[in-house]
Amino acid sequence: MKSLFAGLLLGLAAAATPVAAAQTKLTMYYPIAVGGPLTDVVDGMIKGFEKENPEIDVEAVYAGNYDDTRIRAISAIKSGQPAQLSVLFSIDAYDLIEQDLIVPFEEVATSDEDKKWLGSFYPALMANGKVDGKTWGVPFQRSTIVMFYNKDMFREAGLDPNQPPRTWDEMASAAKKLTKEGRWGLMIPTTGYAYWMFQCFAIENGKELMSADGTKTYFTDPAVVEALAFWRSLSAEKKVSPEGAIEWGTLRQAFTSGQTAMMWHTTGNLTAVKKEAKFDFGVAMLPAHKQPGSPTGGGNFYLFKNAKPDERKAALKLIKYMTSPEQAAKWSIATGYVGVSPASYETEALKQYGKEFPQAVVARDQLKVAISEFSTYETGRVREALNNAVQAAVVGTKTPQAALAEAQATAERLLKPFQK
Q1: CA separation for the pair 313, 411 (Å, rounded)
Q2: Could you tell me which of 33, 78, 129, 393 has the fewest CB atoms within 10 Å of its CB?
Q3: 16: in domain
Q4: What percentage of the chain has pLDDT greater than the value 90?
Q5: 132 with 149, same domain?
Q6: Residues 141 and 41: beta-carbon distance below 8 Å
Q7: pTM score, two decimals?
């Protein structure tokens, strides 16, 4: 009888003991491509999320640049390893859809609150993630290209440090005055993302490089050829920029060490420049020719198709947390990337930061004239053809006309199957 009573007590005790909820585990592949301790920032966000959501365990896999991250994430999926979400290039959407690797957010974000959240981002940042009326990518690590300039060098050259060049002609004129032995007036990178930099020149000359549906390119349009010829002229004729390749990865250091007075680069480098520059510097929108403009850039969140339903819900919860106004503001301040929603710039943190450091809001203001980054079907190979053409023309191994004609022929061959 005693043993029976004891057994009943044990059974009651076991029933009263709460069973620990099973955790949903998420693996997020994340690109670290721009200077700065970004892993610490992302880790801090994840810890904050896990504290609020103890039922979800997040592992961030830092996989290198965007291309490295895409390769590792896809490899993991194909080998059966866990991968529920990732930040990848915003321009990867077409390829990821083609490979049937992702799902549109509308399949997971179904509540009224979710739909309101999907509508809360800057339209310019959503453009690359929208395909056939569905949202395949949500902005997070996003940027535009801006012009950094050394105000001390402007003063030395007799230029107004508070009036950066607003047109191509003004930029070329200022660069001429700023160029002297041991210092260039202007540097624009030709490696890494030449297509992205060239897109600036093209849109400023009034022409987009691709159709909205990603099936056509316009590389041989006279305005596009003229834009590339102008870029080439900065070194070949105007002598305000160095001949040969200008490295994406070391240009920031060239600017902060005084090798160039102006540079075009991603706003994602803003915080690093702020820390490294020992001089007064400004940030300006890119100069216009026929019109102002810059492509957006950077990474979007994607939801992988192989995730289980509970994992998709947990991944959506994480993405909503990381793109919330408060977190987006922290991210922008820590890195220089654009706050992804108007609400992020209404937070006290980012309003105060913008007052103290007005350079931080230039990229946001440029979103009014921003266009989607170059992206088509067969994005990788089409982009490679354009990269090669731009590099060949700018360093002078081919004429702009010949280089772009070759790229256009390649693009037409690759995109023909996708044209209706």
Answers
A1: 38
A2: 78
A3: no
A4: 90
A5: no
A6: no
A7: 0.90
